[in-house]
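Sample intake — Nucleoid-associated protein CC99x_002280
Collected from: Candidatus Berkiella cookevillensis
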Amino acid sequence: MDTKNMDFQSMMASFMQNAQKLQENLKGAYQEISEKHKDRTVVGMAGGDLVKVEVTLKLQVKNIELKPAVFEESPEVMSELIAAATNQAIAQAQEMVKKEMMAVTQKMGLPKDMPMPFSG
């Protein structure tokens, strides 16, 4: 084998090891953030404050609060309000985790807009 081919193979092996280590570090950081904030919640609201949905940063619905006035609405409207409040809370939770991960990746010297393949 020529030395150029061996250098390239060595370089590629090193690159793959570094990529795997980076992936492990990012996954570990995500798990640490998830554990750190496992009890932290956000609230999404719809219809003013007729519907409030509380979601953990692990994207699990913790509580749904319905004001009595919401029961005067049709089932379709109630369903839409619950879905809207839930979606709002989930979006807030995802954004909070994303900001935490951006801080971690910046500390690692990575681009702040690096996609995170393991969310949720």
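Post-analysis note: The chain has a mean pLDDT of 85.
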